[in-house]
Amino acid sequence: MKTETKKIIGIAAITLIIGLLLGWLFFGGSENRTVDQHQHDGEIVNETIWTCSMHPQIRQNEPGDCPICGMELIPLENNNNAELDPMAISMSRTAMQIANVGTELVGKTKAVKSLRLNGKVQADERLIYSQSSHIPGRIEKLMVNFTGEYVNKGQVIASIYSPDLVNAQEELFEARKIIDTQPMLFNSAKEKLKNWKLSDNQIAQILKSGTVQDELHILADISGYVTEKMVNLGDYVNKGMPIYKIANLSTVWILFDVYESDMAWIKKGDEVNFTVQSVPGETFKGKISYLDPVIDPMTRVAKARVEVNNRDLQLKPEMFVSGTAEAKLPIKADAIVVPKTAVMWTGKRSVVYIKNISEKGVNFMMRDVTLGPALGESFVVNGGLEEGEEIATNGTFSIDAAAQLAGKPSMMNPEGGPAMTGHNHGGGAMPTSNEASKKTVTKEVSVSQKTKDALKPLFTEYLKMKDALTKDNMEGAQKAGATILKTVDAINMSLFTGESHSVWMGFVTDLKSTLQHVQHFKTLEEIRKAFIPLSNTMIGISNAFKPNNGVLYVLHCPMADNNNGADWLSNSKEVKNPYYGQAMLTCGEVTKEIK
Asked: By C-alpha distance, which of 403, 353, 359, 362 is closest to 93?
C-alpha cells in the first residue's frame, strides 16, 4: 500500500513539473523576454551618466568624485537631445553652476578710458628770466648768495666795478658843464648810462652827488625765486653775461608722459586729476593746454602740459605727480563695450560665446569679433556683436573646454574636431589659450600652505629668467626657462583638489606649451616673444593661488609685442624691462600689486 502511494505521488510531481515547463515554453518565454528587454532599454534611456570635466574618459552611473583627480563629477549631456544648431554646445543648469558661467546682455555706452599718467612739476618756461650784467666789469658784491632765495623786482642783487662806467660818468659831468651850448651832448651821455640799465633815479643821484661812483648796482628785473647762481664774488663778467636765473613759480607746468599707444586718446582740453606725495589727501585738477607734436626718440613718449595756479607754492619743480585722465573715444555714436573676461584671444582671433535659449535648454555658440581699443577692464567691439545679444562674461574657458571635448568649434580649433582628454599622452600639444587662462581666473582659489610652498620655486626660476632678459643674457634666460619646465613636472599634482585642480591643469598646459622649445630658440627675440604668454600665466597663478609671502608687482610695457603692450612680474617696483633689456631698460610702469 505504501509503495503504491509513493508511485502516485512521484507521478503527480513529474506531471506538475512537465506542465509548468510546457506552460513557460508556450506562454511565458517570449513575453517575459520582451518585457525584460523593454525595461532594460528604458533604464538606459533614463539613466544619467556622470563624468569628469578634466578626464572625460571617466563614466559612472552615479555622482561622486573623479578617481583620478578628485574633482566632483558632472552629469554628461544626453546626446539624444538634439541641439538646434550642430555647432553649438549645450550646457545644463548644473554644469553652468559648476563652471561658474555668468552672462550679460550686450549694450552700447560711451567709450571712456581711464588713462594713468605720470609726470613732473616744472617751472613755467614763460616765467623764467636770466638776470644778466649790462656792463662789463668785476663782481664786487653779491646780495643774493644762494639758490632758492626770493627777490623782488627792483631789488639790488649785485654790484659791479666797471672802468667803462667810470669813464661814462666823467663824460656826463663834462657834458653838464656845456649843457647850455651843447644840450645834445648832455642827453647823449645820459642815454649811454640808460643803455646800461641805469634808472633815471640812479642818474639823478649821480648828478646830484657830483662824484664818480665806482660800483654799479644790478637791480632785479622781475620778482621770483633764484633757481641758479651763475657767478661768484670777484668774477669778471662781460656785457650780457647771465648772473642769476630767476623763476616766478606762481604758475607751474605739470608735464605728463603720454605713451605712443595712448596718443589717440589724449587731446587738448582733456581734464586731468593728479596727486603729489607731499600733499596727501588733496587732488589737483587741470586741463591739457598743449601736446608735444614730436615723440621723444629715446623714451617714445610725448609730453602733455597742464598749467596750474601755484600761488600757495604747494607744487615745487621736479616733484613727481600721478594723474588720471578720463579719455573719450573720438567717435560720435555710442560703442559696444564688453568685459575683458568675455573675450578669448588667440593672438590672431578674438572670440566670444553667444548664449541662446531654446526648447531644448541653454546652448552657447562661438563667434569671432573684431576688437577696438582696450578700456581698462573692458574692450570696445568694432564688429561681430549686436546690441541686445547675450554673451558669456565668466566661465568662458570652461565653455570652450566643453566645446573641445564635444568636438565642436572652439577657440583653438575653429573647425571642430575629435574630443580631447584633459591630459594629452599622445605627444601632441593640447590647444590652449594663455590669455584665456589669465582672464578667467579672477578670484583666489583656496589651496593649502603646502601647495603654496610647492609653487614658490616656480616663481624663483621665473624671476631669474626675467633678470636674465633685462641683462640681454640669452644663455641665462634659456637655462631658467628649462628649469621652469622641470619645476612644473616636479610639483605633485595630488596637492590640487576640487576646483584648484582644473585651474592648475590649465596653467600647466599653458606653461608647457610656451616653454617646450625654449632650449631650441636661436635669438633673444624668440625668448622674449615666449616670455609674454609665460608672464600672463605666472600672473594668473599668482592671482589664483597667492603662493608668495611678499608683494609681487605687475609691470606693463606699452611698446612690447608690437605696441600691443605686455606685462611681467617683479618683486621690486624698480622698472627693468625684460622685453627690451639694456636698449630701453626703464620703459614701463607698475600697474598692480599682488599680495
From this structure: 362
